[in-house]
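Review session, final week

We close the course with one last complete record, chosen because it touches almost every idea we covered. It is RNA polymerase sigma54 factor, a protein from Alistipes inops with 478 residues. Go through it on your own first, then we will talk.
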Amino acid sequence: MPAINQKQVLKQLQKLSPQQIQMIKLLELPTLQLEQRVKQEIEENPVLEEEQQTAEESTEDNGMPKEVSMEEYLKEAETPAYKSYVNNYSRDDKARQVVLFEGMSMHEYLTEQLSYREMPQEQFEIARYIIGNIDDDGYLRLDLQSISDDIAFNYGKEIDIPELEEGLRVVQSLEPPGVGARDIRECLLLQLERRSNLTAAQVLAKRILENCFTEFTKKHFEKIMGRLGISEEQFRAAIEEIQRLSPKPGNLYNEGGNIASPYVIPDFILDERDGELMLRLNSYNVPELKINRKYADMIRQMAHSSGNPSQEDKEALQFVKNKIDSAKWFISAIKQRQDTLMRTMQAIVDYQREYFLDGNESKLKPMILKDIADMTGLDVSTISRVVNSKYVQTGFGIISLKQLFSEAMQTDSGEEVSSYEIKNILSECIDREDKRKPLTDEALMEILNNMGYHIARRTVAKYREMLGIPVARLRKEL
């Protein structure tokens, strides 16, 4: 049996303080989530409150600033606003409230239409259950057998597949056309079937979708024309009809997006005036914070009260001190967050000055996180947290900070260019190509190599996919 020994071991560990952990978490938050986090902290900590101080309240009768003389906790009780006014505001700025509202969702719209239909109650419930399983694009991704099993498990009702098919037909008859389809082929056919007095091109488009959909998706156009015995002109007219249909009917109601989704709120605002770039933080909706004076007065009274305090008074005093500590830590973390954000973004603006002046992507310099880390003296991981999910509002649109970072490519002359320049050249080459014979990745690689950009075929494929451009075979047109 091994002996049991005790020994002392000296270890050096690196641990983050609570304030550092809080700072790291706050640094990652974009403006909208920071606003929610600040409001949450105000609700959880009674010592914190929003700053609503006026000029009269901040001065004595003789015009001199008020001074609060308190020990340790009370010295910083009236903590100044955490915003850096020099960086964040100009004289023209006015605090404005952003009103967020939410419209009717597609599912609510479908349910409302369903309520106007006359049908048995059981069929209504089936159709409503099917609507609940439709995704935001307007598709029913579950098969009917799975829906039948779900109803049996959740409600103890046995629903036959024919009954579900009848309910699905009701849903597919609602607006927008194509909703409730189980695949894109059915979606397109539903839209064509809604139309009355089909033209010859629309009838042919329906035949193509019904009989040659696989060949159509693979763009085997010659095979389709040979099978259906049609001319190229007839086929082109049918293709134009198919292209007018929507592959995502759910977006027809939401005008291309979900109206209930949150807007992108920029974290920085960059203005250009007479060739000068002026950067500020967008903090309109983030309230200024201070420590509630009532709790400071409470500590003052307890500290100067005579006699031995009771156990309850001691606990109350400790509670208030802890809350004041927490509030000061939070305000300090907010201040440090904003200082770090401004420091990092200013370095990015200085590095990419030519791009920010006119928004020309070809002027974007190759830039990686380490470049900004070296300029600011911050760690690369800190720069990564600042860049993540942050946006800057410029005169040419709202830009994601991640979009500003790119790899460096070297030309024959030894000059380093941004990968955005390579992507722009690829996009231009594909726009100018003969759509009857699209350029392959190999051909695009040769074009770039001839222009002095040494790039491999797999890199061309990677950039093409990043641009959302399909392979040559799927870009083929008549």
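Two points worth writing down before the exam:
The chain has a mean pLDDT of 78.
The chain has four domains: 29-53+68-100+263-405, 102-176, 182-245, 408-475.
Good luck, everyone.
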